[in-house]
Every structure is written in structure tokens, then in C-alpha cells.
Amino acid sequence: SQDRIAVIVGSLRRDSFNKKLALALEKLAPPDVSFAYLPIDDLPLYNQDDDATPAESVTRLKDGIRAAQGVLFVTPEYNRSIPGVLKNAIDHASRPYGQSAWLKKPAGIIGVSVSATGTAMAQQHLRNILANLNMPTLGQPEAFIQANEDLFDADGNIGPHSQSFLEGWMRNFIAWVRAFAVATGKAG
Ligand code: FNR
């Protein structure tokens, strides 16, 4: 059967390295796995007053998460944390209280920076948030990636230096998602 992964990219930048990374990872996924990119650029700023009357974009985000077997966060690091646009999306889909779309969805975290820290500190902050949302999050392998000339080839595939590492990362992430599908009786 087809496994659907909801992908949330934490950058709205047109030429985002993280968007490129997500698209390249999709090509490393097994053929029975599909990526569904959930847009977050049209979400309003979260306001608890609107919980009872969510914007259409919020309902769409929550439906997209619920329809997926797992969630992949591909995010840059902004000032040693996750970008505000990503936190805004996470907060939206976590509410109203008791109706979080994130609950028990297995998750993976990955990201690319222009600096050598490779989004490590943003990833640790995100782990803290996902723990609160009760999302079982892949612990190992960790992937801290720096954008350099050979990260991607001319066709947008992962370049030769990182290919086998990221192939292995994807294999572990998909196995993680599938293990939780079995645990909750949603396999097959
Ligand atoms: C950054 N950048 C950055 N990089 C990093 O490794 N650690 C950091 O704390 C920050 N902080 C930061 C703050 C803000 C507001 C911006 C705009 C950028 C640089 C970041 O790695 C770079 O802009 C990436 O290109 C962002 O990812 P996308 O948009 O290419 O996916």
C-alpha cells in the first residue's frame, strides 16, 4: 500500500535550500511512499480567539496531517531556533485543545543551513516541541547538513558525497513511520 508522508518545509524562500532538500529526499524514498507538501505560507498568525472559526488554510493543514502516516519537518535554523512561520503552523494544527492533528504522528526532523552548525540547534528546539505534542520522533540517525556546492547535482538530486548517508536516513525514517503504523493498527 502507499504510505503518505506530510512534508512541512520551514522556509518560505523561493529558492530555499530546505525546499530543495525535501524534493531531493522525495526521490530517495521507496516507490510506495509519497510526499504531500503542506503549504504554510497562507496561514494567518495564530490567534486563540479564532479556534472555533478556523481559516480554510488551517483546516486544510490539519486535514493534510491527519491523512498522512508520518510527518517530515525540513527546516532551516533562524537565530538558533525554528523559523516563526513553522512555529505558527505547529501551533495552528495543535488546537483547539484536545483536537491536535499532530497527536501520535511519527515524525522526522532534518534541515540544511548555510553555516556549519547544520540546523542542529533548531532541531533540538523542534524536538522539544514535538515531545509536547506527543509525536514519536526519530532519534537516530541525526542529519545536520550544510549547503555547499556539491550538496545537490545539476538536476536537484542529492550529490554523491551525501547520497548514501541521506538514503540511509530516509530508510530509517520510513521504517520508523511504518513501525508506528503497525503499533496503532493502521498498517496495510
Ligand atoms: C539565518 N541563517 C541561520 N543559519 C544558521 O545556521 N543558524 C542560524 O541561527 C541562522 N539564523 C538565521 C536567521 C534568519 C532570520 C535568516 C534569514 C537566516 C541562515 C540560513 O541558514 C540561510 O538563510 C538558509 O539559506 C535558510 O534556509 P532556506 O531558506 O535556504 O531553506
UniProtKB/TrEMBL annotation:
Matching InterPro entries: Flavoprotein-like_sf, FMN_Rdtase-like_dom, NAD(P)H-dep_reductase
UniProt domain NADPH-dependent FMN reductase-like: residue ranges: 4-146
Among the GO molecular function terms of this UniProt record, one is: FMN binding
Q: According to its record, what are the GO cellular component terms?
A: cytosol
In terms of domain of life, where is this protein from? Bacteria
Q: Which Pfam families match?
A: FMN_red (PF03358)
The name on file for this protein is: NADPH-dependent FMN reductase
* Record organism: Magnetospirillum molischianum DSM 120
